[in-house]
Amino acid sequence: MNVKELAKGLTYKGEAEGKRQTYHVFEGKGFYFIVSFHKGDADSGNFHFVEPGAVEYVRKNFAGESGVTAKAVFEKGHRTHYFARELDALGVLYVLVGIGDCAVDKRFKDKLLHFNMKPS
């Protein structure tokens, strides 16, 4: 991907609070871009690209559900080209939080993050 094209026209959509980091969601032309910074070192972090089709897939297939996990999204959608690993599914869920289509469910105290999806 061309870095100049990537940075051109990014629109900030929102953020999602993970277990250890905050994920900032941007929308570009034909993709979502997630950026997180390490809490102990603000000069370093991670980024992840998410296809809009993956976001639509999860929005459609999990609409109105509560307690959705990245593992559940991966298990249901791993045969699609959208999810090669659970981390891809988690990225989609962070995008959905950032754009306001789901929320982190803080009632769960286990290791996994749980999300509540808005109805379609």
Number of helices: 4
Strand content: 25-35%
* Total beta strands: 6
Average residue-wise pLDDT: 92
Under CATH, the topology can be stated as Arc Repressor Mutant, subunit A
Structural class by sheet pairing and helices: alpha+beta
The rounded distance between the terminal residues' Cα atoms is: 33 Å
Shape: globular
N to C succession of SSEs: HEEEEHHHEE
Helix content: 25-40%
How many whole angstroms does the radius of gyration measure?
14 Å
Q: Which regions are unreliable across 5 or more consecutive residues at pLDDT < 50?
A: none
CATH 2nd-level architecture: Orthogonal Bundle
Q: Can you give a write-up of this model?
A:
The chain has 120 residues and is α+β, with helices and mostly antiparallel strands. The protein has a single domain, classed as Arc Repressor Mutant, subunit A, CATH 1.10.10. The protein has helices at 3-7, 52-61, 70-77, 86-98; strands spanning 11-17, 22-28, 31-38, 41-50, 102-104, 115-117. A four-stranded antiparallel β-sheet has the order 1-2-3-4. Strands 5-6 form a two-stranded antiparallel sheet. β2 (22-28) and β3 (31-38) form a beta hairpin. The chain is globular and about 40 Å long. The model has no long low-confidence stretch (mean pLDDT 92).
Task: List strands and helices in order, with pairings.
Blueprint lengths: L2 H5 L3 E7 L4 E7 L2 E8 L2 E10 L1 H10 L8 H8 L8 H13 L3 E3 L10 E3 L3
Antiparallel strand pairs: 1-2, 2-3, 3-4, 5-6
Helix pairs in contact: 2-4, 3-4
